[in-house]
Amino acid sequence: MIRFEQVSKRYEGGHEALSQLSFHVAPGEMAFVTGHSGAGKSTLLKLLGLIERPSHGLIALDGQSLAKVGRAGIPKLRRRIGMVFQDHRLLMDRTVYANVELPLVIGGIAPAERGRRARAALEKVGLLAYERQLPASLSAGERQRVGIARAIVAKPTLLIADEPTGNLDPQLAVEIMELFAEFQQVGTTVLIASHDLPLIKRMKKRVVVLDHGRLVADIAAQEVL
Amino acid sequence: MNTSTELPHNETPAHAERHRPRKFASWHEHHGWSAGASLRRLMSRPLGTLLTVAVMGLALALPLAFYLLLGNVQKMGDALGQNQTVSAFLKSGQTGSAAELIATKLRDRADVAAVAVKTPQQGLDELAKMQGFGGALHALDDNPLPYVLDVLPKPGLAANEVEQLVTDLRAIQGIDLVQDSGTWRQRLDALLGVGKRTAMVLAALLTLAALLVVGNTIRMDISSRSEEIDVLMLVGASRAFVRRPYLYAGIWYGLFSGLLAALLAVLVELALAEPVSRLGSAYEGRLQIGGLPLWLLIAVPFAAAVLGWLGARLVSAWQLRKAA
User: Fold this and answer.
1) Per the CB < 8 Å rule, is A111 touching B29?
2) Tell me, what's the pLDDT at B80?
3) Strands A189-193 and A30-34
4) Helix, strand or coil for residue B5?
5) Which residues does chain A have with pLDDT short of 70?
6) In sequence order, which residues have a C-beta less than 8 Å from that of residue B318 and are 6 or more positions away?
7) Are B232 and A98 in contact (CB under 8 A)?
8) Cα B306 to the chain's mean position, in Å?
9) How far is CA B210 from the centre of its chain?
10) Phi, psi of A30, rounded to the nearest 5 degrees
11) Which residue of A has its CA nearest to B14?
């Protein structure tokens, strides 16, 4: 599903965020990427979402090299990926329903089908009753769940999340992570960047540990204590 | 959280479902949505929209007003220059038959449309009709006026051709004086030429100004919505998708300012109607002053809409390239 081969990323100014990184994630697998602040977790996800391009190396998604994806192909690729952000990035002047429906509008799905799927996604994250509300009226955890509903509504093959529980209390964080685990169980590949080690240990999934942009450990799910 | 709900993931991915007929339907649907949403966005900040439309409308109305003014000056010149004859006064003592002989020769010229022979008596009668001359004419013992040939040049003659005709008339024996009142027309034509060129340059500059106004408004709009644009692009929106509402905003700005410009031009026309009508009456109806043609009034809003679209297109392409 995801393959990184000797990937390096050096930003303008010389800072090397990732260095010679190689790993792969199998289809339907769930993995955490962890490490201290500045370890390169977010850069890794940005490279997958084509927000950034690598300086060296190969990144492939479903066997397709991302280097071959031109500017015009980026939107199509992003429609295959569901992205969840720490700051949820919701459109605050649109309702919860409109936010969740957005990827389907972009994907050209018929209105009736959009309604069905957006409501199914909202129900999945437990927010169907809030569909007409504006995100500003929701709590941080609820907003994050709206962000997750938006990420899954177009049925992506890959779900990536950058510190999705960063602003949440521990109980809510567990609920969100369990939600991600459910998506993995139905075949979605899930890659989550997080520095919340207790939570990662609790989930018992594969953990990729980065330090200063280098891979320092790749712990299989069964080895997580 | 409800776990009993059907998981969206069990179905075919959205990107794989998008086929051609639906693609067109969604494109069409998004155009409708973009047109409506951009209009609502404009209406949600009436003052800003009004100011932008007013500036653009005034910029577009000025060339229209010039067009109206110059067109009417041209028409006035045409009307006053109509049947503008060259008068050739024969020498005193020339007889009627001599006058007819010269007239016949002139009628054979290719640059002459008509020649009328005016007898001294006809000349005297014309003078008598003019106010204030009646008494003076009664005091005369005999008629001092000569035969006069009113020579009408062929329509469409160039100024230098008319000038050549006048020179030729002066060279004819028996003609004492040639009076050509066409010089003022030449000057008017030259002035109109300067005016038309000035109006064209002004129209181009003001059109550019309108383009810049709409471009800058759209630039500020895009800047204020950069977060929304980021989100749209992150969830897979193409640049065309993101740009569409801004293009419609440009079209709306253009259309409204075009309508305002057309309205202002009509108001200028109405304001001029009464004094122009008086002027026309003073020339015994010879002056037919016209307004702006209907096709132009209809075309202006559409042309302005295209202008608005162009401004938005240029700026949004540049801004979104930066955002991407």
Assistant:
1) yes
2) 65
3) parallel
4) coil
5) 225
6) none
7) no
8) 18
9) 17
10) -120, 130
11) A154
CA distance A182 to chain B (A): 9
- Is residue A119 within 8 angstroms of chain B, CB to CB? no
In the prediction, which pLDDT does B262 show?
94
CA torsion through residues B96, B101, B104, B108, sign: negative
pLDDT digits (tens, 9 = 90+) for B244-284: 999 999 999 999 999 999 999 999 888 888 887 777 776 65
Q: Which residue has the higher pLDDT, B167 or B25?
A: B167
CA end-to-end span of chain B: 36
- pTM comes to 0.73
Instruction: Note the pLDDT of residue B180.
Output: 80
B236:A76 CB<8 A = yes
Query: Which of A156-170, B51-65, B103-117, B266-280 shows the lowest per-residue confidence on average (mean pLDDT)?
Result: B266-280
The CATH number fitting domain B85-180, selected from 3.40.50.1220, 3.90.940.20, 3.30.70.3040, 3.30.2290.10:
3.30.70.3040
CA closest to B41 among chain A residues: A93
Residues of B in contact with A27 (CB under 8 A): none
Question: Radius of gyration (Cα) for chain B, nearest Å?
Answer: 34
Q: Name the interface residues of B facing A (CB cutoff 8 Å).
A: 1-3, 5-15, 17-18, 22-23, 25-27, 29-30, 33, 227-228, 230-239, 241, 324
> What residues of B are in contact with residue A156 (Cβ under 8 Å)?
13
pLDDT of residue B11: 47
Q: Indicate the domain borders of chain B.
A: 37-79+187-323, 85-180
A26 touches chain B (CB under 8 A): no
Judge whether B246 and B34 are in contact, CB under 8 Å.
no
Strands A158-162 and A81-85: parallel
pLDDT of residue B8: 45
- Is the pLDDT higher at B142 or at A95? A95
Between CA B266 and CA B259 the distance in angstroms is: 11
The type of residue at B32 is G
User: Does A51 reach chain B within 8 Å, measured CB to CB?
Assistant: yes
Q: Quick check: B83 pLDDT over 70?
A: no
Supply the mean pLDDT for chain B.
83
- 8 Å CB contact between B113 and B154: yes
With a pLDDT cut of 70, the percent of chain A lying above it is 100
CA dihedral B180, B182, B186, B191 (to 10 degrees): 120
Q: Residue B287 has what pLDDT?
A: 62
Which among B3, B9, B232 has CB closest to A155? B9
Chain A positions touching B21 (Cβ under 8 A) are: none
More confident residue, B227 or B18: B227
Beta strands at A56-61 and A81-85: parallel, antiparallel or unpaired: unpaired
CB of A186 within 8 Å of a chain B CB? The answer is yes
The shortest CB-CB distance from B5 to any of A105, A120, A155 is to A120
